[in-house]
Design brief:
Keywords: Metal-binding. By secondary structure, the chain is an alpha/beta fold. It has a single domain, classed as Purple Acid Phosphatase, chain A, domain 2 (4-Layer Sandwich), CATH 3.60.21.10. The protein has four helices and ten strands, in the order βαβαβαββαβββββ.
Length: about 180
């Protein structure tokens, strides 16, 4: 049975925004699995996502401290519909990322990561995965940095494959 995913990272609440964008909350409410690749900053968002998500797979990031580090691992793993997923915040420099990640996550089909705030979707050869390791960074829905807009990702996991990967642009919402 297909599993719908929503993937986010680098939310930095409440420093970069007071809340997640409305479109992202709607995606959370519709998803079977919510993935957060770190840099929450405040535990209130973790509490809210745990309350609203059917299932949450999440890690802490370099800007997360205290309760966030106590409650969240550095690396999270799950098998979803035959798809071996890992989540981590940092993967290092873009140069050589595919090679490093394939070596670090040999038994993984998809690696979700964050940190750079830059949307990323590549596949690299990996002997542990028949079609290669797919690396996906959803960008940031609240802190676009040098990107034209914020982003988050929706996707579907079914029969060991990640499909329908869509990067959703997030227009800036005014602060009240």
């Amino acid at each position: 049975m297909p599993v719908s995913l929503v993937v986010m990272a680098d939310t930095h609440l409440p420093r970069r925004a007071r809340d997640l964008p409305h479109a992202l909350w709607a995606a959370v409410d519709a998803a079977d699995l919510v993935v957060h690749a770190g840099d929450w900053v405040d535990v209130a968002l973790l509490d809210a996502l745990e309350a609203r998500s059917r299932r949450l797979l999440a890690v802490h990031g370099n800007n997360d401290h205290g309760a966030l580090r106590e409650r969240l691992p550095e690396v999270a793993r799950a098998e979803v519909e035959g798809l071996r997923i890992a989540v981590v915040h940092e993967t290092g420099d873009a140069k050589g990322r595919e090679r490093r990640c394939a070596a670090r996550f040999p038994d993984t089909d998809v690696l979700f990561f964050g940190h750079s705030h830059i949307p990323w979707d590549t596949v690299t050869p990996n002997e542990g995965a028949p079609s290669g390791l797919r690396l996906v960074n959803p960008g940031s829905p609240t802190d676009r940095r040098r990107q034209p807009h914020g982003t988050f990702v929706t996707a579907v996991a079914a029969d060991g494959v990640l499909s329908e990967v869509t990067f959703h642009p997030v227009p800036r919402e005014p602060r009240p």
